[in-house]
Amino acid sequence: MRALLFDEPAADTATTRVAEVPVPEPGPNEVSIDVRAAGVNFIDVMARRGDPGYATGWPFVPGLEVAGTVRALGAGVSGPAVGTPVAAFTGSGGLAEVAVVRAQLVVAIPEGLSFEQAAAAPGTLTTAALLLGPAGRLRKGDSVLVHSAAGGVGQALASLARLNGAGLLLGTVGSASRAGSAEKAGYDAALVRGEGLVEAVRERTGGRGVDLILDPQGTEWIDTDLELVAAGGRIVLFGNAGGTPMTLPAAGRLFGGNVSIGGFSIRGYAANAPELVGEALAEVLGKANAGELSIELTPVDGLERAAEAQQALAEGRGKGKYVVRV
User: Fold this and answer.
1) For position 296, what pLDDT does the model report?
2) Where is the Enoyl reductase (ER) domain (predicted)?
């Protein structure tokens, strides 16, 4: 079968290629899937850079979310039946013609959703659901600020936060050219990260700050987050887009503001609580099928185009959600 490979760490596409690799077979409690569409995520970029904890070895096949049809069931797995359209969180290995995944992370696609739509659910939409649920503990009426609001997860967070009763919804973007995509997704305002951000947020919150901040930028903006969070608020870090070393603030700053900082990893949930990922995936697939939840999709044809999409994310040029038609 064909798969996208990272041969070794690189800052660009220099060591990325499409190659023939052995077809993986499902083991006990696993399902193999003939992939029809696969999502592109910033985690691909982090793995390609060689950030610790993302690539398990070299060469490495990236891709953490897929949609396709069940190819085979491993020992101890009773369903979904072979041929069933499914979406799945793979963690890695999804940008290939065949992927193998734990059975708990596989959910049947509701009739009416395309493979492209479904491929955005296991990583992107499910991440948003878990961030607002067990990680961020969103309450009705809470104000929310999301960094990188124009990206796939950022757009998904806007839709789900509205569905879950959020109040004021603010997003930040890296450049003014991306503000329109964020506001189209549902943010009340999309603000450019940089000088003037603190004042702009304070003006919109009457000086109170925001209840929940969701930040995929590592700790690069943590000092700003602490200036923006309301008393008793929560900050959830769910990535490290810049790849710089992460440093947490002194505990005294948290005590003084009655603030909590948490971390989130969907791969951690998939490894230690796969049932939560499966439940969240089924939820967002249902909402997407009902027309309650959608994000801007940018389909690209063929595994050969995946590297371009990854590079667009790496350079901050990506808008919405890239999905590769395999």
Assistant:
1) 86
2) 11-324
Nearest to 64 by CA among 84, 35, 37, 44: 44
229-285 residue pLDDT tens: 999 999 999 989 888 889 999 888 889 889 999 999 999 999 999 999 999 999 999
Q: Is the distance from CB of 3 to CB of 302 less than 8 angstroms?
A: no
pLDDT at position 100 over 90? yes
Contact 201/181 with Cβ under 8 angstroms? Answer: no
DSSP 208: S
Q: How many CB atoms lie within 10 A of CB 1?
A: 15
Half-sphere exposure of 38 (CA within 13 A, CB side): 31
Q: Per DSSP, what are the bridge partners of residue 108?
A: 86
Domains observed in the chain: 2-120+295-325 (3.90.180.10), 125-266 (3.40.50.720)
